[in-house]
Design goal:
The chain is α+β, with helices and mostly antiparallel strands and about 130 residues long. It has 2 helices and 7 strands. The longest helix is centred in the first third of the chain and has 18 residues.
Length: about 130
């Protein structure tokens, strides 16, 4: 049976987990987060694996466990824009999807906390299953 995200492209903003099972768990949680917010998503930028903090007004604060992904649908691919989503999970290690939140659409070159583009061109990518 094909994976539901077999046609989805995943780009990695950090080093893809070496363990294929961990990578697939993260991809599945990312996929569920993306389609919960926009079922027309075609590309997911995996930005951070499980963590329990977020940035509000420039300050890191405690948050429920979640992953961070940015997503694009076909229109956003053409416009070089994206949305960023938090996919809330059971814990930082159990990536079972609970719920998702999203931001407004932003240009890909919007700076992250370190001043780098949120979605830089040329990230390592893979299609569907590893």
């Amino acid at each position: 049976m094909p994976l539901p995200y077999a046609d989805m492209t995943f780009e990695w903003k950090f080093a893809r987990p070496d363990d294929d099972y961990a990578a697939e768990d993260l991809k599945y949680a990312s996929y569920l987060t993306a389609i919960d917010r926009d079922p027309t998503t075609t590309i997911i930028c995996v930005r951070m694996d499980g963590h329990a903090e977020t940035r509000k007004n420039g300050v890191f604060v405690k948050d429920d466990p979640h992953i961070t992904v940015s997503t694009k649908n076909p229109q956003q691919v053409q416009e070089r824009t994206h949305r960023t989503n938090h996919g809330y999970t059971v814990s930082v290690t159990d990536l079972t999807f609970v719920r998702a939140t999203t931001t407004d659409v932003k240009p890909d070159d919007t700076p992250d906390i370190n001043g780098n583009p949120i979605w830089p061109m040329g990230l390592p990518s893979e299609k569907g299953k590893c």
